[in-house]
Here is the input.
Amino acid sequence: MKRFYKEVSVIPSPERGGSEALASGEGSVLHRWAIYQILLDSRPIKTPKRAPLALPSQALAEAVATEWRNQGEEVKPRSMHLTKLANTAIDRVAGREAETVEKIVAYSNDLLCYRAQAPEELAARQAAAWDPLLAWAAERYGVRFHTGSGLAYIAQPPETLAALRQALAALDAFRLTALANAAPILGSVVLTLALAEARLEPETAFAVSQLDERYQAEKWGEDPEAAARAQALATELSAAARFFHLLSSP
Here is the structure.
């Protein structure tokens, strides 16, 4: 669509500091802390469901505003990854936090738990890259993951799933949105949590998740379509990580 605005600004929302909670278009409470709105020529941006695009961090609001400032004569929503995540948090996750937690916990059927029997070189690479992360998760969250070889489903201990739910349930709709976008890209709840905890940078987390694919590309050559798709996913993952960490910035 054609660009319809000239100026983009960030202001404290009218709800800031008050006791009233901001609600989404469906009436679900988003948050009860200081929030910031983004204006296009003095008019507040609305989400697709017509809720105010209000964010709990000024740093995130400024980053979203920058996406709007950087648009040319044509506004290209697909290029605005942070805006998309903010809209998702407000329109689709707020009020559905428990459901979103379950979507993330589903990735406890974790990529890192499925090991190759052969070739030996690939199995060794998996062990070197993945075992330290499973050990980190065990120490950080008190969880234990079963691992195995082959494609058969590996059930994880109920206490592991309960601990993951507890850790994720402490997060708000915005942070859950970021992790719910990261988990399918990584195929791993452990990598997703490592990204959230800044244990891994997004580039490293993505590379670890693509270990098998990179091994195959080394042996048989890289498929251009697969490489383009991987690059698109890496971009999405980087945006999700940035979104998550901007929420903790001043």
In short: Residues 17-33 have pLDDT under 50 and may be disordered. The longest strand covers residues 8-12. Strands lie at 8-12, 22-23, 29-31, 36-40, 43-44, 54-55, 114-115, 148-149. Residues 8-93 form one domain.
